[in-house]
Amino acid sequence: MIWRKIMIQSSYWEEGSKHQWIFCARDNSPLDKLQEKVSVEAIQFSINDEPVNLGIKRVNGRIYSGNYVGLCRLRSTNGKRLTSYDGREVILRIEPRFDISVVEMLNALREDDEFERYLAPQTSRINETDKEIGDLKNNELFYFFDNEDPMYVRDKMALNSSIITASVFLTMLKDLCSRPLMGKMIYKEENLVGKVKGTVLFKKNIRLNTLKGRDDRIYCRYLQYSEDILENRVLKAALHKSGLFLNKYFGSASGNKNSFRDMNVYCQNALNHITNTKISRHDLSKIKTTGCYVYYKPVINAAKMVLNEITLEANGESALTSYVVPYAVSMSKLFEMYVRAYLKRAGIKSYLSNAEGIHILKYDYKSKVLSQNASVYSNYIRGNVKPDIILFNPQTDKYVVFDVKYKNLLHGKTARADRLQVLAYALLYNCENVGIIFPTLDGTENIYYERNEIESVEQRQRYYNQLEIAIDTNWEYVVRSKETQNTVPLLQYIKELLA
User: In the prediction, which pLDDT does 3 show?
Assistant: First the structure.
């Protein structure tokens, strides 16, 4: 893989189905060709890295894509759909600038022991570190425009969306199944023998029992608490479709407890007593998730997307409907998760492991900035920090903190905030070494830069370290020095930082 292969045709227009124009581009790239078919003055641009229009922004008069990839309808400044000069619907499609797809990166993560945490909505509060289910929009990795109508796109374009949707749903469903399932008091009719329960249905009793000489039976209707209700049947129907679909594209062979296969088995066991039924659009409109079962709402929303995007053919195989819910994927968060998985594969121990060696702290590990937060203390900078990568060596009692940036390291105009961030981590974790990890420029080889001493009046030395990690599926755990060209195993490089 070389640079010209990575930066495949930065942007272009193609004709879609059903009176559409599709604008295709790469993340973090100029979008000059966008003005060929739409008025750029009418486009709604992202200001604070929001996923609106997949985060496209205007800088010094030019339009650039941001760190989001995905599919969405192009929106105007008034929030409405922006059409092309010839009146067609405009679909914005942005893919990673590297020669790898979101699905390939997601598949590379599914063996990681924190896979479920990566896909779960996150919280910034220290006392809520184990929060798993919240509003679907609180998810840091994926954003679904679920208030919009599904878009019709070609099968190839729909595939990524459906895999992402099914993955998110299955992860959220597994957490829901660890809680009490939703239940209701429902009416049940039954032909009872030798007893009466609830209300006797005389017309049915005469037809089914009296006329047949079965006076020992009484047909009754009564209330009974049951979990076999519409909401749970919707979840089971979506589970069936998502399980078949993910197995089709990823296969079922995996021994990791957090793989799609094992999550699917866990959910099937939890919903084993729920009836398999065909779910219609009318059924979906009758669902209610309020009160003590409000935690069902984000999972139900994900289930609806699965049911809309995936269908079952007559032979039982899963297939795409070609209707997808517009979505955005944060490449910044995905790259951070990818780096965590890469370090573990290279030999860094998980926070869950009791084995000797260097450990990586929990994905959502947080630290307080101030020790006291009461009103009598100065609290202007109070809050929490959550570094991307914290590595700890129990033998030396040392930390090294890396921030992960999905940026081109040659563009240093926005480095001020990153500079202050790594310096703060050095202070908070008493690190001799801190650094930043970037995606590698050539897309294939892992690079490290000789460490650079940080100028400080402290009576100790601190160093800045810089790494480039390749975004591919080769998983080569060797890094080469940018200056000397010498190579060293990545684990050995980390050990020297924590010696």
Answer: 34
Considering only CA atoms, which of 111, 94, 114 is closest in space to residue 22?
Answer: 94
- From 36, 12, 5, select the one nearest 92 (Cα to Cα): 12
Q: For the beta carbon of residue 173, count every other beta carbon within 10 angstroms.
A: 25
Task: Determine the Cα–Cα distance for residues 147 and 303; give it in Å rounded to an integer.
Answer: 14
Alpha-carbon distance values, 354 to 23, 242, 349, 362 (Å): 50, 34, 8, 14
Residues in Cβ contact with 301 at an 8 Å cutoff, skipping those fewer than 6 apart:
136, 144, 146
Burial class (CB in 10 A: 0-12, 13-18, 19+), 227: middle
Residues 259-303 have pLDDT tens digits of: 678 888 899 999 999 998 888 878 888 887 776 677 788 888 888
pLDDT of residue 1: 33
CA angle 469, 472, 477 (to 5 degrees): 50
User: How far, CA to CA in Å, does 261 sit from each of 30, 108, 172?
Assistant: 40, 15, 14
C-beta separation of 171 from 119 below 8 A = yes
What residue ranges in 366-454 does DSSP mark as E strands? 367-368, 384-385, 389-393, 398-404, 433-439, 447-453
- Distance, in Å, from the CA atom of 37 to the CA atom of 16, rounded to the nearest integer, reads 14
Distance of CA 363 to the CA centre of its chain: 14
Q: Which amino acid belongs to residue 482?
A: K
Report how far residue 218's alpha carbon sits from residue 206's, in angstroms, rounded to the nearest whole number.
9
Do residues 479 and 491 lie in contact, with contact meaning Cβ atoms separated by under 8 Å?
Answer: no
Instruction: List phi, psi (to 5°) of 22.
Output: -115, 120
For the chain, the straight-line distance linking the first and the last C-alpha, in angstroms and rounded, comes to 35
Cα separation of 97 and 374, whole Å? Answer: 47
* Confidence band for 176, pLDDT divided at 50, 70 and 90: confident
